[in-house]
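We now fix the convention by which a protein and its fold are recorded. The integers have meaning only within a learned vocabulary of local backbone shapes. The record below shows the convention in full.
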Amino acid sequence: MHKILSLILGLFFITEAHAAIRIKDIVTVEGIRDNLLVGYGLVVGLNGTGDNLSNSSFTQKGLVDFLERLGVNTRGANLKTKNLAAVTLTATLPPFSRQGNKIDVAVSTLGDAKSLQGGTLLATPLLGADGEVYGVAQGQVSLGGFAASGKNGTAINKGVTTNGFIPNGAIVEKEINFDFSSMNNIKLSLRNPDMTTAFNIASVINRHLGGKLSKALDPGTVELSISSNQQENIVTLLSELEQLTIDPDSSAKIIIDEASGTIVMGDNVRISPVAISQGNLTVTITEQTNVTQPHSLSHGKTKTTQTSSVSVADPGKKMQVLDGKSNLHDLVDGLNALGVGPRDLINILQNIKAVGALQADIENR
């Protein structure tokens, strides 16, 4: 039991047991995706931890432009405030977001501001890749860390204070239209491309629909043809299809992270006939000092002598033989029997691969 526990503690071993998985969980509908938004704005209300305007010309220009929009002319003035910071905003616009929906916003400083703690973002447009405005962000910036310092120079920092976020900090102003009714076919993209899995998805869909309306175009794409009577009910059709289940297939692969000693092996790993021996010969040498005292009436002298003892500890492990039908479970059971630890297991797997007996790919991280 100790041998098995020692291996389990060092080896996080996952078997991909065949189980029915919903199509919904392994594919995405091509064209339905998130869209990235970005913006540039100002955070105000900082307690002297903002940008130094003499070092950040873009912050000063942003402040001047903002004040001009409010009717305040400060061009040419010597602005010295340190209570604001120029920031970049990033957000993700989910598919089918409607006007008025709210999304989260991440905030990061551009200049030499020390902290965004206590700051408020002014109204800032969020742009898509096409340059159009899809949202407007504004609100109190929340930080995942903090910074505090005393007059004698002592300081405490936790996390990064120049990055923050605003929960529900942006309002969607423009929608990205996606019209199902105009589509004659729909492509399903596999999250983990695999030829067999793509074929199985197409087969399951065809059996459900009672016709050859689906086909695998490549390991990562399954195409579904939309019949005329389903044109107006595509959402209902997709809702039915994504609940169908299949047994996903996967290639035989072993992932090794030598830094942490973590090994993850798929259930499809197979071992050709091979013999494995793992030796843990331990040699212990002990030095001991002996003192010899003369008789009380003799004229002898006290003497010291050194003695050495050598002991050899051999666990007596025998060679483990795995036949050609061995799978992942047989391999792990056999290596457990040899008392192999995770570090030794990494070397054994690489050596089995080197002799051509491991029918799997090894990927080092």
